[in-house]
């Protein structure tokens, strides 16, 4: 077990992965567990199947999700970092609730781009009992997420966003209200940028890629190789990248200003905060926060904004 003390204090994975216990509870993971050069049990994190098996085991062991599976090439996110976002959101709500973390299904959360993996609703519901609604523009993601809910008998609402240019429109109805919205937006500006990002990641991991050669891992000529955590186009890139996506989110949030206490989104690049803050000032957000989250060797963050004065944000 390798300590990950940079994770949130309530994160179950702060002390690393107990592979011995995970294998007992999820025997399928055992096929991928080997001693590391340091003599500790681990998996090959370059191996997509191993990462998927680890995620399945973690969700079962820590979040009582007995069945979890996603199609090949769909985003398979690292659980510890994702659940950190959930814990910091709980702290954000606690600030409006006399420092007490609100729990239970009366707290409603909207997850934009929930994906086939459904990781935020699964972990957030298990940790705090919140009521989640997940949205996505990909019909397959919604279908797979529905199957995960059905197998595990979970009450999570799922909505297909039919219009790619919309985020909140067509999702939040006139009678809907949410305490939080959350999002892990697509980062890259194009498929080409996403492909180059893939190459850089593998180079950093010591893996050599031959994109376009038609030989790497059986890929067709001209198609980029995938990351060990996968990802569909809509999960990895959009026109204008992260800044444009969040800017659209901010612009549309004005229309639902009184229906959501806090709008939030992960922001991968610190430099992207400046134009987003400027836009939030223009649209009249009354409170804006950046919450830093240290995870391993990197620092991530999310931005949060509200159009409701602090004295009126009732949970």
- Find the CATH superfamily of the largest domain: Vaccinia Virus protein VP39
Largest sheet: 7 strands, mixed
Radius of gyration: 20 Å
Inertia-based shape: globular
- Give the helix tally: 9
- Cα(first) to Cα(last) distance is 38 Å
Can you walk me through this structure?
- This protein has 315 residues and is an alpha/beta fold.
- It folds into two domains: 243 residues, Rossmann fold (3-Layer(aba) Sandwich), CATH 3.40.50.150; 43 residues, no CATH class.
- Helices cover 33% and strands 16% of the residues.
- It is built from nine helices and nine strands.
- The strands form two sheets. A seven-stranded mixed sheet has the order 5-4-3-6-7-9-8, sandwiched between helices. Strands 1-2 form a two-stranded antiparallel sheet.
- Helix 3 packs across helix 4 and helix 8 packs parallel to helix 9.
- The chain is globular.
